[in-house]
Amino acid sequence: MDSVRIDKFLWSVRLFKTRSIAAEECEKNRVLINDIEAKPSRHVKAGDKLTVKKLPIVHTYDIIKLIDKRQSAPLVKNYILETTPNEEFEKAEMARLTAFVKRDRGAGRPTKKERRELKHVFCLIMMLFMPFSADFSDTLVAQSLANDTRAYMETLRQTRQADFVVEQQLLAISTERLISQLEPFYSDTLALIRQKAYHLTFLSGTGSDLHTERTVAVERLFNGSNDPDGGIIRQTLRFLQQFSSEDFNDDVRKLMNEKISNTRMSHYKELVLLAGFVGAGEDEMRELLLDADLPQRHRWNISLALARMGDVAKTTYIVNTAKRLPISNDLVEYVLPELIYTRQKEAIDFCIELLFIDEKTCSSHNPYTSEKISCAWLVLPLLASVIADLPVTIDIAGDIAGDYQQALRDSRNWLIENRDYEISY
User: Fold this and answer.
1) Would you call 143 exposed, middle or buried from its count of C-beta atoms within 10 A (0-12, 13-18, 19+)?
2) Which CATH number fits domain 126-247: 1.25.40, 1.10.10, 1.10.1200, 1.20.1740?
3) 238-249 mean pLDDT
4) 50 pairs with which residues across the strands?
5) For the chain, what percent of residues have pLDDT higher than 90?
6) Higher pLDDT among residues 90 and 309, named by residue
7) Are 302 and 285 contacting, i.e. CB atoms less than 8 angstroms apart?
8) What is the chain's mean pLDDT, rounded?
9) By the 8 A CB rule, do 300 and 318 touch?
10) What does the alpha-carbon distance between residue 99 and residue 166 come to, in Å, rounded to a whole number?
């Protein structure tokens, strides 16, 4: 299947208990596809970014594969990959902790989970105040956390349920130590365990201010591109895009150069775009372009990566290709994000041209009307993510906050006055 209604897909991957609830949430503008509010009749495709607002958390997912029948919980990971930032889960934890602190008198004894948390805090206090030597204390803490890591992963294996509180405790240690404790689980026979090990590595690495720790995390995550599960390969390659290019050392770049030549690799597009972001594999990509039998989809993705690395000819090629396409939802939602990925002014200028077109050629996301709208409304959020100082406010879901019409007028005027705008990287 090429596409599925969003309400049916949300129900199929168990994000909502019933399809009617999923449709109701769409009507309340709590579901977005590629950062655009989606009505129940809107269709999704593999590769789309899904945002679901379940306050206080705004969840984000990557759609891996389409499905229109409800799946069992263990199979959901084959269809969606959760990419929700760690900060979102912290909101829920803060709300939970606040509720615990304000526990009403007469509410009864603490639950088992609450007692475990109290016990963990008590152990930490004891280790701080007991008169142990520094070395012995460090060893005791390391052993305790190593046991916690093994216990948590084994609990996850049995219950298939993640525990945010425990994960926050594991993420409190250094990235190198965490990776050492997770080492046995990167090669576990259960894909869910391997997936969680890489997810914790990603959270620890991106949450560190130390370049050395981020480099170690990048190296371990890139090893995930060798995983036998295609979903994990996609997950790790997308995780790596959240790091800085300076976090990729020479060893990782060398491995990336070698993998570029293997066009049969699962999720090859993500690898190529990551290489373009890092600035690796240029020679290998140019050699592949000489092959007349190279599939067009690979030729396009390699051109995007080379454009990101500053190839003027490839930038012109992809822009001219985009200009030949009709101005429609498909152009805005699937092609423009790839042009913006290049971070080249020629590509961004083409997107800006579309912002000034008032012709109504895009479909409205309102399922109760067939009236067309100007595609400028859909282009504006994309430009706001890449042009520095554009007078537009983006909310936590990646949407334009406030008056859309005023935001469009202000942005057009600002772009007329600031033709030498700065591109955000």
Assistant:
1) exposed
2) 1.25.40
3) 92
4) 33, 61
5) 53
6) 309
7) yes
8) 85
9) yes
10) 18
Q: What is the pLDDT of residues 19-54, one digit of tens each?
A: 888 988 988 889 999 888 889 989 999 889 999 988
Higher pLDDT among residues 415 and 82, named by residue: 415
Other CB atoms within 10 Å distance of the CB of residue 424: 12
- The residue ranges of every structural domain in the chain are 4-83, 126-247, 315-417
State in Å, rounded, how far the first CA of the chain is from the last one.
35
Residue from 296, 338, 334, 302 nearest 319 by CA: 338
**Confidence (pLDDT) at 104:** 55
CATH 3.40.1260.20 fits 4-83, yes or no: no
Span 80-124, pLDDT tens digits:
998 888 777 766 655 554 444 445 555 566 665 555 555 555 555
Whole-number Å distance between alpha carbons of 150 and 155:
9
